[in-house]
Amino acid sequence: MLKTFLFFLLVMLVAGSALGDVSVGFRIGPPPPPRVIVQPAAPGLGYIWVEGYWYPAGHRYRWHDGYWTRPPYEGYHWIAPRYEGERYFGGYWDGSRGRFEHNHRWDRDRDRDNREHDRH
To answer: What are the structural domain ranges in the chain?
Structure first.
């Protein structure tokens, strides 16, 4: 019995390497429509409004409220998340230093806009 199992395991490993990469995924469909809210006044100069958006979290979407924030570098602009076809593309900052990924940990930091975000 053990020899049969090991033989089967070996066959599966050889077949898997012969077929190349194997990918397993899941689909959760498009996100719900955006929520409609009233945009509050800017807290000061240099702030950019990031519209609220849905983002995938596990097997469902979570809503991320819109907020005012400062870009990671001067001159950067926000590229909003989007859903095209069956793929989700997360939002990010873009500018002269290249793409700067959005980090949801910043959003839990209430003082996120009063500190430098790695400006090296």
So the answer is: 25-114
